[in-house]
């Protein structure tokens, strides 16, 4: 099983690093390799048979392709419903999965991600906590040490700063400091990012704070398809995973396959293949980039848009292959400029792909300010499509 | 009777041990023996257990041996630290041995224990061996955490010993999480989450206690009150030094932590309570002879008279030694032999640990993620070993 998965990975590598040509066939080929591998596992298979399903399809060139690839018609839902579907499926599959957070149970979740779960699974598996992030995150880590797989929700990601010690020292490091004795298969999730005038303290982007913690994995979802896939993969992972959702993306609608699927945690997603410039983005900024892409296409540019999804570690394979093709990079992120994901990504690209660059790497980030309340100021804090267009024009001169 | 008394007064060095000891070997009887605890229990919101503790001669001898081994280990660690073989932080437990030993006698290996950084003796009590303990202290590969944890990160998963934590108080929510998992899995076991009088002022304790009480978790919060949070005496740090009452709505019990039998009784009582009714707080009134850690002389905030006073009047090992004499279960010479044997055991373990090699440099990147993932497996070409060492 493991051999099949790794040979599938190498096959992808061989395909993707071939001479530049239209990326669509490469994507389709990649998908067919993976679906074959995933089919061996199949839904409902238990235990280690699920291993193969881990390397299931991630990339899709456009929305229609995903539904077309599925056997039945697929079903349409909103992103928060996709997260919920993932939780329900995993909780049904594995009795050690439990949900811990504020108002996740009887209230149904502040963003309705856990709506109905308490009725389905009971109070011992869907646990309403008091407002005590530090301790209930710590309790999640302790429960994980003893064999459970908790999904800890921060009502807003920013509240998890109160649990920073538990996330950093215990969650991230216990596998190492115990010499490998304990694993912490915990998922820490919650909405973050700049919303609609929520104010400075409720508009935090914690991915920049958590990225240095050794032992943590970080992913950011951006579509209902990858939200469900990443949530399932995060729950199944033996490592602690932080899943970053975004307050403004919960009501995105998409058709997703009926059959079971998983997204690879460490993989980036090819959103729009192109030739002129590689635009790396994640979470909400993906939509600003795609909006800018429309304008850019009208102006005659052909941007390649990659949703990096995996914030730690970076999928340097996909990113590298893109840079080798386009030789120009623009990073668009919602983190602040200082110490953000873009800063780390820039370093990683320079370290690994310097020879392939024809222009300096540009990075568009949010301003280094607390997010203001006034709508005009808030809009100026984050990157807007017009700025993305201007940046591409500058890079492609 | 008189002859026996005479025999005991002959120093072991001058008389061959065997000739006289043939008369009565050190007791390994398992006949029940009831001993009263030195002081009564003080309780909060619950009826305290009886002062009469049931034990056996064999158990008392084991107590003596285990505590002496722990004492010797900690003293040896002191020397190793001064010889610069142990570096960084080293927090020694000598004086507090009764808590570790008494707790272990009351519970099983299916119950869980989690503690802070003063964890060497708890590791031994949970079945850890001397060689892996010393190896870990010296940062060797044979250490219980492969040399990557150090003094503050001893763990033993197969004995349900969850460490070993450096950040004060952070282990208590972890402990309540362990208790949650025990309840979730319907295990009928309990978790003992140990912390000190300094950590008792951490907010996360009260958060975790609130949640544990709400969800009726089998969590026992044990405050090892050695009266000093590093250099700050308890009366300077806590408005209310009645740590057993700090649970407010959670019952509590104050125990003489230097009396191993009282500790055993209290822990048994606490486990039965926790499994049936939810959390309970234990306060162990104990004392550490060393300073907070090896960098702290331990005498700037307390007098040497105080330290020697406790050592004379309340030392846990001496207490058991007296019990063994009073109940005629062992002679002074036998116990001295045992101590010699223990000393040798510890010296042998140190020698063996010194021979163990330092971890290989590749160990730097193992166990960061499960399955050796992360720096080792992914890179731009999806090949292994993308990490470059400085």
Automatic annotation (TrEMBL), chain A:
Gene3D superfamilies xrefs: 3.40.50.920, 3.40.50.970
EC number: 1.2.4.1
Domain Transketolase-like pyrimidine-binding: 77-252
GO CC list: chloroplast
InterPro entries listed in its UniProt record: THDP-binding, Transketo_C/PFOR_II, Transketolase-like_Pyr-bd, Transketolase_C
UniProt keyword Calcium present: no
Reactions catalysed according to its record: N(6)-[(R)-lipoyl]-L-lysyl-[protein] + pyruvate + H(+) = N(6)-[(R)-S(8)-acetyldihydrolipoyl]-L-lysyl-[protein] + CO2
UniProt entry keywords in alphabetical sequence: Chloroplast, Metal-binding, Oxidoreductase, Plastid, Potassium, Pyruvate, Thiamine pyrophosphate, Transit peptide
Gene Ontology molecular function, alphabetical: metal ion binding; pyruvate dehydrogenase (acetyl-transferring) activity
UniProt-listed Pfam families: Transket_pyr, Transketolase_C
Cofactor list: thiamine diphosphate
Compartments it resides in: Plastid, Chloroplast
Complex formation: Tetramer of 2 alpha and 2 beta subunits.
Role noted for this protein: The pyruvate dehydrogenase complex catalyzes the overall conversion of pyruvate to acetyl-CoA and CO(2). It contains multiple copies of three enzymatic components: pyruvate dehydrogenase (E1), dihydrolipoamide acetyltransferase (E2) and lipoamide dehydrogenase (E3).
Protein name per Swiss-Prot or TrEMBL: pyruvate dehydrogenase (acetyl-transferring)
Automatic annotation (TrEMBL), chain B:
Cross-referenced InterPro entries: DH_E1, PDH_E1_Alpha_Subunit, Pyrv_DH_E1_asu_subgrp-y, THDP-binding
Keywords carried by this UniProt record: Oxidoreductase, Pyruvate, Thiamine pyrophosphate
EC number: 1.2.4.1
Residue ranges occupied by any Dehydrogenase E1 component domain in the UniProt entry: 66-360
CDD domains associated with the record: TPP_E1_PDC_ADC_BCADC (cd02000)
GO process annotations (BP): pyruvate decarboxylation to acetyl-CoA
Keyword Oxidoreductase attributed: yes
Cofactor: thiamine diphosphate
Catalytic activity as recorded in UniProt: N(6)-[(R)-lipoyl]-L-lysyl-[protein] + pyruvate + H(+) = N(6)-[(R)-S(8)-acetyldihydrolipoyl]-L-lysyl-[protein] + CO2
Keyword Oxidoreductase applies: yes
GO MF term set: pyruvate dehydrogenase (acetyl-transferring) activity
Function recorded in the entry: The pyruvate dehydrogenase complex catalyzes the overall conversion of pyruvate to acetyl-CoA and CO(2). It contains multiple copies of three enzymatic components: pyruvate dehydrogenase (E1), dihydrolipoamide acetyltransferase (E2) and lipoamide dehydrogenase (E3).
Subunit structure and binding partners: Tetramer of 2 alpha and 2 beta subunits.
NCBIfam families in the record: PDH_E1_alph_y
Name of the protein this chain belongs to: Pyruvate dehydrogenase E1 component subunit alpha
Origin species: Miscanthus lutarioriparius
Taxonomic lineage of the native organism: Eukaryota, Viridiplantae, Streptophyta, Embryophyta, Tracheophyta
């Amino acid at each position: 099983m493991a051999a099949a998965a790794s040979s599938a990975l190498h096959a992808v590598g061989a395909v993707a690093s071939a001479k530049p040509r239209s990326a669509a066939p490469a994507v389709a080929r990649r998908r067919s390799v993976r679906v074959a591998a995933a089919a061996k596992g199949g839904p409902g298979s238990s235990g280690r048979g699920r291993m193969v399903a881990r390397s299931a399809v991630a990339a899709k060139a456009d929305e229609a392709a995903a539904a077309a690839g599925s056997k039945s018609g697929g079903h349409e839902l909103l992103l928060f419903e996709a997260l919920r579907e993932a939780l329900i499926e995993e909780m049904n599959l594995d009795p050690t999965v439990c949900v811990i957070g504020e108002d996740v149970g009887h209230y149904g979740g502040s963003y309705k991600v856990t709506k109905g779960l308490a009725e389905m699974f009971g109070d011992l598996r869907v646990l309403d906590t008091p407002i005590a992030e530090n301790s209930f995150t710590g309790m999640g880590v302790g429960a994980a040490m003893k064999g459970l797989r908790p999904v800890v929700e921060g009502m807003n990601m920013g509240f998890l700063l109160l649990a920073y010690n538990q996330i950093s020292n215990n969650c991230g490091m216990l596998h190492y400091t115990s010499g490998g004795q304990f694993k912490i298969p915990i998922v820490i999730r919650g909405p973050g990012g700049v919303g609609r005038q929520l104010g400075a303290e409720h508009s935090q982007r914690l991915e920049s704070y958590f990225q240095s913690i050794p032992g943590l994995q970080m992913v950011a979802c951006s579509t209902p398809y990858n939200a469900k896939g990443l949530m399932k993969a995060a729950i199944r992972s033996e490592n602690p995973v932080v899943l970053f959702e975004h307050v403004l993306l919960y009501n995105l609608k998409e058709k997703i396959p009926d059959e079971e699927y998983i997204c690879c945690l460490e993989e980036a997603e090819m959103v729009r293949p192109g030739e002129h410039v590689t635009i790396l983005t994640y979470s909400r900024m993906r939509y600003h980039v795609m909006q800018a892409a429309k304008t850019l296409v009208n102006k005659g540019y052909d941007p390649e848009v990659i949703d990096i999804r995996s914030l730690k570690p970076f999928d340097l394979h996909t990113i590298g292959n893109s840079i080798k093709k386009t030789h120009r990079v623009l990073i668009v992120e919602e983190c602040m400029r200082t110490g953000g994901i873009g800063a780390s990504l820039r370093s990683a690209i320079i370290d690994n792909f310097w020879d392939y660059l024809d222009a300096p790497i540009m990075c568009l980030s949010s301003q280094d300010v607390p997010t203001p309340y006034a709508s005009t100021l808030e809009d100026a804090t984050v990157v807007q499509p017009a700025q993305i267009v201007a940046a591409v024009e500058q890079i492609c001169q | 009777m008189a002859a026996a008394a005479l025999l005991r007064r002959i120093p072991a060095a001058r008389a061959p041990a065997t000739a006289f000891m043939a008369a009565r070997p050190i007791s390994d009887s398992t006949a029940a023996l009831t001993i009263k605890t030195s002081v009564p229990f003080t309780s909060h919101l619950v009826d305290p257990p009886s002062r009469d503790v049931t034990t056996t001669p064999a158990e008392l001898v084991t107590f003596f041996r285990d505590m002496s081994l722990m004492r010797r280990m900690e003293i040896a660690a002191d020397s190793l630290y001064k010889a610069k073989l142990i570096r960084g932080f080293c927090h020694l437990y000598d004086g507090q041995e009764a808590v570790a030993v008494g707790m272990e006698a009351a519970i099983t290996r299916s119950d869980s224990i989690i503690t802070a950084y003063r964890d060497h003796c708890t590791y031994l009590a949970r079945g850890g061996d001397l060689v892996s303990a010393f190896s870990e202290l010296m940062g060797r590969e044979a250490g219980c955490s492969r040399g990557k944890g150090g003094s503050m990160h001893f763990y033993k998963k197969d004995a349900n010993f969850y460490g070993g934590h450096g950040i004060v108080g952070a282990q208590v929510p972890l402990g309540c999480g362990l208790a949650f998992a025990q309840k979730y899995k319907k295990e009928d076991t309990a978790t003992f989450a140990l912390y000190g009088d300094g950590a008792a002022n951490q907010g996360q304790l009260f958060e975790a206690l609130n949640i544990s009480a709400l969800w009726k978790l089998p969590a026992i919060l044990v405050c090892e009150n050695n009266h000093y949070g590093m250099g700050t005496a308890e009366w300077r740090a806590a408005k209310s030094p009645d740590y057993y009452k700090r649970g407010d709505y959670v019952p509590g019990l104050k125990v003489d932590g230097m009396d191993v039998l009282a500790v055993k009784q209290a822990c048994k009582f606490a486990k039965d309570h926790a499994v049936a009714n939810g959390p309970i707080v234990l306060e162990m009134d104990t004392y550490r002879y060393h300073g907070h850690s090896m960098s702290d002389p331990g005498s700037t905030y307390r007098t040497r008279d105080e330290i020697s006073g406790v050592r004379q009047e309340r030392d846990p090992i001496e207490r058991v030694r007296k019990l063994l004499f009073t109940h005629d279960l062992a002679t002074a010479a036998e116990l001295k032999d045992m101590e010699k044997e223990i000393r040798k055991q510890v010296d042998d373990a140190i020698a063996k640990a010194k021979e163990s090699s330092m971890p290989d440099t590749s160990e730097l990147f193992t166990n960061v993620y499960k399955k050796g993932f992360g720096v080792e497996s992914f890179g731009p070409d999806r090949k292994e070993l993308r990490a470059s060492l400085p």
